[in-house]
Each structure stands twice: as C-alpha cells, then as structure tokens.
C-alpha cells in the first residue's frame, strides 16, 4: 500500500491493518529480529485519530531504534543501553518532524548492534532476513526498518547511514532510500556511531512515496535544467549486479568518460580502509565509557570491533587523513562539472549468513565509503535481478535539497 492508500483508511482500520500486516507478513522469528516494539491497537488508533493535517497525515511508519520516542526505551540494537542512558522524555527531531507532518509512529525496529555493521545480524534479537528469501540478510545496520517496508508492514521507515546502512539494505531489500548529511538536526539527537559520518535516512517501496517523504524531511528544489551526471563502473562487483546496475543507470544518465572514471576510481580505492580507521576512532570515543564494564554484554561482532577501534593509534589516523582530504578534493572537482554520480550500492545481492564475512564487508564499504567520507547525501534506487533478488544504485550529489532527487525519482516513478 502506498502513502495515499494508507491515508484513505479510517483510524481504526489503519491501526488494525498495521498490526495485521506485522503478524501475517513476518514470521515469528523474523518479527522478533525486525521489530523492537509495536504500539498496541488502542494507542495506535488514538494516534491515527489525533494526527494533525499535513502531507503525511495517516501514513504509519516505524523508526530505527536509535531515534528516541517518549515512553519507549532506546536500545540501539544492544542489550544494555537503557541502563546507561536515560529513558527519553522527548522525541528525536526527525520523529517530531514526521509527527508534525501527520505521520503516525507505529513502533521501533531492531538494527545491527549500535549500528556498527552492514548486515542484518544481531546476537541479542536474531538475524534479520530479507522478506521472501529465508536465509538471506536484509542488510544493515537499518535492518528491521528495511525488512518492515519490504514486507509491506508500513510504507515508510526511518534508518541511519554512517558507512552504508541505508544504501546497502535498500539494495538488498529492493527499496528506495535516502541518506542525508552528517550533523543535520535530524541525526544530531540520535544514538551515535561516528558523528562526523552519521546521517539520518528513510526507506519507501515506491519512487512517488520517496519523493513525498524527502520533500517533508529534507526539502526539495526543482530546476528547469536537467541535472548532469554519469555512471561509474566499479571493480569488485558481481557480473550480474554490474550488468543490472548499468542498465538501470541508463534510464537517467550516461557512462563516465575514461578520465573521470579513472580519477574517481583511484581516489575511491583506499576508502574502505580510511573509513574503518576514522569512523572507528569516533565510535571508540562513544563506547569507551562502558566498553570494559559491559564487555560481555556486547555481541561478539561488535565486541571485536570495539577492541580493534580501541587500538587505533594517532599514527594510523595521520596516515589516512591525507587520503580523506584527497578524496574530498576529488568530489569537489567532480561537482564543478556534474550534479550527481551514480554507482552500485552493493557488489552483490542479499548475502546468506555464511557469506557475511569481513572480506565481503570490505567489498561493501569500498562502494559506500567514498560518499560517507565526504559527508555527501545519496538517493538509493532499487535494481531488480533475474533471480528475484535485488541490487541497488546510489545516486550521490552535493546538497540534500538537490533538484537531482525529484528529477531521478520522476523518471523512475
């Protein structure tokens, strides 16, 4: 159901439909792994009835559990965060913005623990699967949000993207996604991973709904001039995914010329390593206050990442800072001539559990980290594959209100 179809339901019908879909479209294990909490029928009906007039009035949504909602503890995929962080009394800014537009918060979704991963794994609540494909990950860290929209439980869900946590699950689950910019008010009051790179974002199933949601949350400018961009082939992408992304990009852009492609590919090459160091340092600053006291209450994947982040030296940071500066300069030069760059969001379709390896994490980061390190916004576009699985494009631009967003979405609607 689209935004408009949800808006036609009466409050009681909308509340019942959300709960029915959560029960019927997610198996018991999938629901435990995807949804942290759902509002009860009475409270949800009252919320629909009380929704103010606005462009999203009557549209239900779920929020990744690093955004605060009054009366709901925020776990951020962990086993202990509410014990060391007060239960929120005020909503996060992004939840307040959606409420003012008439959207109805139906609950919160599980995520990769502390947002520190690109798969749907979680040692505490279970691994989140891509709906319709048992054994395949939803991608992460915004795993529950992506799974809930892909399953049709709600038409809109909030996520975040530090190193790819909107773009990867959008690709794996066949969704549209939007990644904002660091330090925005929409992410500033969320549980952080690495504040210099954290961004707020959201998922929808259709281009039209993405256009509406992004106009509300980020704002949009239009232009009479068609935006200019190109498509960048990237190494390390599975052949089926590369061919599908190339065909999808051809609907709105052309391949990069050799000089542009070579320049960007060269600057992008070290990005996965650079991101690991710089984001790791920031994540350690947040976790060091309780990393030892609660060591055994972290899942093994995050515990290992904390230990590696703890050991990052000033010399390691200094060694990668020049690469980040060079990358930012390359993006700046690119945007003097172009309005956007399209490239694959993930090098493969949704992974099986056994394939959620460190090597494949680096392959994903090699595609997502170039935009993350430069603090750039991106539109995630789904790309269907012959297998029924999906891949994705990321359309990277320089301004979250860029005319690129409505221009691309209008061509895909």
Please explain how this structure is put together.
- With 413 residues, the chain is α/β, with parallel strands linked by helices.
- An 11-stranded mixed beta sheet has the order 1-3-2-4-6-5-10-11-9-7-8, sandwiched between helices.
- The longest helix has 24 residues, at 314-337.
- The two termini are 15 Å apart.
- Helix 2 packs across helix 4, helix 13 (271-287) crosses helix 15 and helix 13 (271-287) packs across helix 16 (358-373).
- Helix content is 43%, strand content 13%.
Q: Assess the beta-strand content as a share of residues.
A: 5-15%
Name given to the CATH homologous superfamily: Amidase signature (AS) domain
User: Class, according to the CATH hierarchy?
Assistant: Alpha Beta
Q: Tell me the count of domains.
A: 1
Q: Provide the CATH topology.
A: Amidase signature (AS) enzymes
Residue-averaged pLDDT, rounded?
97
**Structural class estimated from helices and strands:** alpha/beta
Rg over alpha carbons: 20 Å
Major sheet summary line: 11 strands, mixed
Number of helices: 17
Secondary-structure element string: HHHEHEHHEHEHEHEHEHEHHHHEHEEH
* Portion in helices: 40-55%
The neighbouring-strand order within the major sheet is: 1-3-2-4-6-5-10-11-9-7-8
End-to-end CA span: 15 Å
Give the second-level CATH assignment, the architecture: Alpha-Beta Complex
The rough form would be described as globular
Poorly predicted segments: none
Number of strands: 11
């Amino acid at each position: 159901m689209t935004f408009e179809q949800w808006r036609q339901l009466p409050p009681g019908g909308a509340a019942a439909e959300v709960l029915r879909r959560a029960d019927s479209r997610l198996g018991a294990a999938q629901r435990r792994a995807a949804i942290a909490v759902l509002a009860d029928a009475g409270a949800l009906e009252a919320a629909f009835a009380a929704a103010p007039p606005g462009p999203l009035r009557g549209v239900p949504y779920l929020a990744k559990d690093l955004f605060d909602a009054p009366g709901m503890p925020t776990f951020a995929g962990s086993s202990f965060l509410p014990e060391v962080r007060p239960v929120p009394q005020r909503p996060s800014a992004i939840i307040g913005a959606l409420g003012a537009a008439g959207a109805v918060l139906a609950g919160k979704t599980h995520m990769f623990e502390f947002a520190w991963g690109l798969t749907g794994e979680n040692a505490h609540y279970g691994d989140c699967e891509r709906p319709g494909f048992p054994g395949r990950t939803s991608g992460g860290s915004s795993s529950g949000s992506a799974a809930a929209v892909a399953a049709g439980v709600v038409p809109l869900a909030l996520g975040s993207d530090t190193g790819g946590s909107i773009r990867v699950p959008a690709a794996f689950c066949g969704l549209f996604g939007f990644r904002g910019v660091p330090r925005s008010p929409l992410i500033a009051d969320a549980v952080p991973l690495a504040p210099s790179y954290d961004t707020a974002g959201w998922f929808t199933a259709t281009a039209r709904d993405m256009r509406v949601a992004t106009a509300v949350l980020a704002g949009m400018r239009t232009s009479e001039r068609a935006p200019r961009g190109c498509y960048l082939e990237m190494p390390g992408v599975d052949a089926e995914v590369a061919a599908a992304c190339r065909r999808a990009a051809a609907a709105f852009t052309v391949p990069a010329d050799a000089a542009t492609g070579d320049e960007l590919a060269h600057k992008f090459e070290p990005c996965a390593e650079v991101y690991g160091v710089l984001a790791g340092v920031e994540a350690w600053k947040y976790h060091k206050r309780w990393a030892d006291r609660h060591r055994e209450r972290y899942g093994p994947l995050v515990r290992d990442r904390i230990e590696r982040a703890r050991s990052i030296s000033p010399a390691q940071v200094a060694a990668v800072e020049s690469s980040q500066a060079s990358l930012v300069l390359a993006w700046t030069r690119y945007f003097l001539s172009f309005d956007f760059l399209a490239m694959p969001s993930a090098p493969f379709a949704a992974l099986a559990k056994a394939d959620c390896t460190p090597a494949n994490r680096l392959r994903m980061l090699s595609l997502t980290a170039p935009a993350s390190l430069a603090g750039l916004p991106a539109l995630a576009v789904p790309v269907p594959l012959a297998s029924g699985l999906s891949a994705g494009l990321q359309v990277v631009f320089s301004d979250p209100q860029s005319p690129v967003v409505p221009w691309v979405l209008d061509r895909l609607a």
